[in-house]
Design brief:
heterodimer, A: Rossmann fold, Rossmann fold, 2 domains, 7-stranded parallel beta sheet, 18 strands, 29% strand, B: alpha/beta, two-stranded antiparallel sheet, 6 helices, 13 strands, 27% helix
């Protein structure tokens, strides 16, 4: 029976939430092909949350344990996955920092292409077919993967974690001999914001309308009131050095798809819209009623953000306390 | 220090995308092309590293049609020493592109091979890493900080909720992210000098690959929603709508 491999991620001994989305996407593909799903976990010890992989749709969980797998080990993870990868009809990664590094390594080792940032998948005449945004989401490409193993990465926040509970039987996976050519020597905390804009269910972004860097405090307060929210930024304010480049949403920054995107003081340049247009609900707050951002927003408020945002923060706090 | 930079010609990020006649690629009519923004960080890194070393050679390699010569000249004007155009059609399969680039770079004696972390057109995020795998070199991908000293290379990669610190020995492949540096603009003197710098053209042909593009479409237009109101009083209405109608808070 054909099988799909879902590559999971752990950090600090805990399974990352995006891994459940990877398993759900693999399950979707497996159901279309009549295949089973194996999830693979690379770590140096037991990982908290692995039981959830069965509930997300994994028939088996293959655990590759190695003393150097505490942090991401690019060459070690790639060698391990490639050692069994050729036996799978497809290998599904997350288009995260790790997945973006790991998926092309595995694909190159298997001698096949790698479809990244996939937002839709299925089968057609036995081949895996995917849709993926290109030009930062300004266009959608349909691709047929014709290799013996289809290697792909899914965009975070895109595949719903269903309730196709499977056994999730734990099995050891042998780590082959490998040479660690590059090593991750440490993981440092970031200077700003801990939640990443690509994974946060809510993103509050600011632009030039904020006038100066210190005023981003207004957005941080709103994000805190909303809970589970990250603060993003337009290219203009990142280029001006107000915010870290990791927070930039748009074609030369990140493409995000949260359930709620709040654009504050952002006019809506084409390259910014490209990065956030697939958000489920978009709110715009801008003093210019003709700003292009209102053309893509579900809800808009025309007004002075310095008056509107604190009020919205207060209203959200009140509602969420009810 | 001998450094190669791989550079791609891409549509400007302000381009409005129109699907071309075949339905599988964009209509290039009227589109302004620029060097891929992430590759410009790689170009800047190469020039700065050679300046710091005080000696060496920098080479820019691009796969594409004749029009890519203009893109190569831009890098030469910034300060790269010479260019190589691998003349041929690209591929939807990043591995085929990586194979052609790796064949050109193999045996070139490069201490560093630099790429942008991705191209803003096809969004693969894969070719640089694949070249490293093919050549059996260490790969530091998506670095927003880069340090080269004493035969080693160090980098920092932004990950979700943190920063990974990477280390490897040279020779190595590095792909650059925003934040690693600020690319210089070509000077007038640089632009004049670039016209005389060597630019070698080598025909290449790519394999069929394992990724077949079957269509390209525009995403569904978002319908403009509604203006909830003006001024701070609208905030209360908005909060209610987000809870009861949109159900997102």
């Amino acid at each position: 029976m054909a099988a799909i491999l879902a590559v999971t991620e752990q950090r600090g001994g805990s399974l990352r939430k995006v891994s459940l989305e990877v398993v759900a996407a693999a399950r979707q593909l497996a159901d279309a092909m009549g295949a089973t799903v194996d999830a693979v976990v690379c770590s140096s010890g037991p990982v908290e949350g692995v039981a959830a992989l069965g509930n997300a749709g994994a028939d088996q969980v293959r655990h590759a344990s190695h003393e150097t797998f505490t942090l991401y080990n690019p060459d070690g993870f790639a060698a391990t996955i490639a050692s069994v990868g050729g036996g799978y009809a497809a290998i599904v990664f997350a288009a995260t920092a790790m997945g973006r590094d790991l998926a092309p390594r595995v694909a190159a080792k298997l001698g096949v292409g790698c479809a990244t940032d996939v937002t839709g998948l299925g089968t057609e005449g036995g081949a895996v077919v995917v849709t993926r945004p290109v030009y930062a989401g300004k266009a959608i490409q349909q691709v047929r993967l014709t290799g013996a193993t289809a290697v792909l990465s899914i965009r975070p926040n895109t595949f719903a974690t269903g309730s196709a509970a499977k056994a999730g039987t734990l099995q050891p996976l042998a780590v082959p001999a490998f040479t660690a050519r590059v090593t991750v020597t440490a993981v440092k905390a970031p200077a700003q914001a801990s939640l990443d804009v690509t994974e946060a269910p809510i993103v509050v972004s600011g632009g030039r309308g904020l006038r100066e860097p210190a005023n981003f405090k207004l957005l941080e307060d709103l994000a805190a009131a909303l809970g589970n929210a990250a603060v993003g930024a337009s290219r203009a304010v990142v280029d001006a050095g107000w915010r870290e480049h990791g927070a930039q949403v748009g074609q030369t920054g990140k493409t995000v798809a949260p359930s709620l995107y709040v654009a504050v003081g952002i006019s809506g340049a084409i390259q910014h819209l490209a990065g956030m247009r697939t958000s489920k609900v978009i709110v715009a707050i801008n003093k210019d009623k003709d700003a292009p951002i209102f053309k893509v927003a579900d809800y808009g408020i025309v007004g002075d953000l310095f008056e509107v945002v604190p009020r919205l923060t207060a209203e959200v706090t009140k509602l969420r306390a009810e | 220090m001998k450094i190669a930079v791989c550079l791609k010609r891409v549509p400007d990020t302000t381009t409005k995308i129109v699907v071309g006649a075949g339905g599988k690629s964009i209509d290039e009519a009227g589109v302004k092309f620029v060097p891929n923004p992430y590759d410009e960080y790689a170009v800047e890194a190469a020039i700065a590293l050679k300046e710091k070393a005080g000696a060496g050679e920098t080479v820019v390699v691009s796969l594409g049609g004749d029009a890519a010569q203009e893109t190569i000249r831009t890098a030469l004007a910034m300060g790269i020493d010479r260019g190589v155009l691998l003349k041929g059609d690209g591929s939807a399969d990043g591995l085929e592109v990586a194979r052609v680039l790796a064949a050109e770079l193999n045996g070139g004696g490069y201490d560093l091979i630099l790429f942008g972390k991705m191209a803003v057109d096809d969004y693969h995020h894969a070719v640089g890493v694949m070249v490293g795998e093919i050549l059996g070199l260490p790969v530091l991908s998506s670095v927003s900080a880069l340090r080269v000293e004493g035969g080693t290379v160090g980098g920092e990669r932004e990950i979700e909720g943190g920063v990974e610190v990477l280390a490897a020995a040279l020779p190595a492949v590095v792909t650059t992210d925003k934040g690693v540096n600020t690319p210089r603009l070509p000077s007038l003197k640089g632009i004049m000098a670039a016209k005389k710098k060597p630019l070698e053209v080598k025909p290449v042909s790519l394999g069929a690959g394992t990724m077949v593009v079957t269509g390209l479409s525009l995403p569904p237009e978002r319908q403009a929603g509604r203006i909830v109101g003006e001024g701070p009083d609208a905030a209360a209405v908005l909060a209610q709508l987000l809870r009861t109608e949109a159900k997102v808070i």
